[in-house]
Amino acid sequence: MLITISNEFKQEKRYDDALHYLDRALNIRETHLPSTYEQIARHINGIGLIHHEQEKYNEARQYYQRALDITEKFNASAYDDIAVLLSNISLTFQQQEDYVKAFDFRNRSLKIRETHLSSNHLQMADGLNELGHILLAQKKYDQALCSYKRALEMRETFDPLGYENIASLLTSISNVLMLQEKLDDAFDFQSRSLKILEIHCPTSHGSSAYCQYS
Predict the structure, then answer these.
(1) What is the pLDDT of residue 77?
(2) Cβ atoms < 10 Å from Cβ of 115
(3) Of the residues 15, 63, 147, 161, which has the fewest C-beta atoms closer than 10 A?
(4) Which of 156, 99, 149 lies closest to 128, judged by CA?
(5) Could you tell me the CA-to-CA distances from 32 to 2, 23, 40, 112, 186 in Å, in that order?
(6) Can you give the residue ranges of every domain in the chain?
(7) What is the per-residue pLDDT for 202?
(8) Any residues with CB less than 8 A from the CB of 90 and at least 6 apart, and which?
(9) Is domain 119-214 classified as CATH 1.20.1250.20?
(10) How does pLDDT run across 70-92, given as a tens digit for each residue?
(11) pTM above 0.70, yes or no
């Protein structure tokens, strides 16, 4: 019940109220159910997410790290939870433009997914896409291109109807090629993106891929 109330306040962007109820839920678990490590870690991660939404990245990261420490110590085979927490930490560094640390945590998350969760192709694609953004910000264009293309291949293979995600990746590839002054290749990828949006996502056409390209 406390979690449900917290989630409702979070959706309404009443973050102080959301934190109040989530803190209460966490305190109850830590006091009366201290061995429920998985739920405790998820409550702590939830607190981090609320801080993250408020752009309080240092505070969010402290909670993510605390949840990660608990999970790695008491539930080390919860690979998906660990990968998500590493991803969350990476995102806080990415938002703060600390791309070296963002890359490190993103890479750790991806390695766990590749080793233990290889069938979760779409999560892998999302992680590779974020890795591409980090590499692009560091002006490592060849590596960014490789990451985006791997993500695109996974999306086209395992989610061929995810047109907006595919179009977005095509645009990201086009943007990198533009920066490398490979204009013909950039135009080809952007044209593919726009064609997908025109056919399958007409309401997105002109606002999604095109705006990113310009």
Answers:
(1) 97
(2) 10
(3) 161
(4) 149
(5) 15, 14, 11, 32, 58
(6) 119-214
(7) 78
(8) 101, 102, 103, 104, 105, 106, 109, 130, 134
(9) no
(10) 999 999 999 999 999 999 999 99
(11) yes
Both tokens of residue 54? 């408020």
- Phi and psi based region of residue 14 (left: phi greater than 0; alpha: psi -120 to 50; beta: remaining): beta
Look at residue 135 in the predicted model and tell me its pLDDT. Answer: 98
